[in-house]
């Protein structure tokens, strides 16, 4: 939601030439939303949700690759640290503080050791300690249970 109603418009106003890329990312969200809803419908047996999960996996990975290639460089260049802090607070409020460890760890699982260390260097020491001692190990245990060989690497 924050991307579609805040980040993309902010970038579009600052970098009008990015419109095609930002519109494609927003269109992806329109295709992802119903898949996320269907994948999360625990009233439907997992076996019947499997094709939806597979489609979600493919589309989400393609979307994230496109986002990393096009939007992230624009965000780094055109969104100020103060604006980013405000977006982070909004994301935490919308996610719910109880889910922050899982979401933070999920993001960290996509990073290599260098990027993960750089990201951790930007947060308060308490968050780094909680991440290393509790959030990340708990996420890894859950990922191993759910995904076996696809579990994220451990933090050094």
SSE layout:
Blueprint lengths: L1 H13 L4 H21 L6 H33 L2 H15 L4 H10 L3 H8 L4 H23 L9
Helix pairs in contact: 1-2, 2-3, 5-7
If you had to describe this structure to a student in words, what would you say it looks like?
The chain contains 7 helices and no strands. It is an all-alpha fold. Helix 1 (2-14) runs antiparallel to helix 2, helix 2 packs antiparallel against helix 3 and helix 5 crosses helix 7. It is globular and about 45 Å long.
Instruction: Indicate the mean pLDDT.
Output: 86
N→C terminal distance: 33 Å
SSE topology string: HHHHHHH
Oligomerization category of the chains in this entry: single chain
Q: How many beta-strand elements?
A: 0
Helix content: over 70%
User: What about the largest sheet?
Assistant: none
Secondary structure tally, helices: 7
Rounded to an integer in angstroms, the radius of gyration calculated over CA atoms is: 17 Å
Structural class: mainly alpha
Outline: globular
- Spans of at least 5 consecutive residues whose pLDDT stays below 50 are none
Strand content: under 5%
Supply database-style keywords:
mainly alpha; 0% strand; 156 residues; 7 helices
Quick rundown:
The protein is an all-alpha fold and 156 residues long. The protein has 7 helices and no strands.
């Amino acid at each position: 939601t924050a991307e579609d109603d805040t980040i993309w418009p902010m970038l579009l106003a600052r970098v009008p030439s990015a419109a095609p890329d930002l519109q494609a990312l927003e269109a992806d969200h329109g295709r992802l939303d119903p898949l996320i809803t269907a994948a999360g419908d625990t009233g439907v047996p997992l076996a019947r949700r499997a094709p939806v999960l597979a489609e979600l996996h493919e589309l989400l990975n393609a979307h994230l690759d496109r986002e990393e290639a096009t939007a992230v460089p624009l965000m780094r260049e055109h969104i100020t640290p103060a604006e980013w802090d405000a977006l982070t607070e909004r994301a935490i409020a919308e996610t719910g503080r109880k889910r922050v460890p899982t979401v933070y760890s999920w993001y960290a699982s996509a990073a290599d050791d260098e990027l993960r260390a750089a990201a951790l260097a930007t947060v308060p020491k308490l968050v780094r300690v909680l991440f290393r001692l509790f959030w990340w190990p708990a996420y890894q245990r859950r990922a191993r249970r759910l995904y076996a060989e696809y579990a994220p690497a451990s933090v050094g």
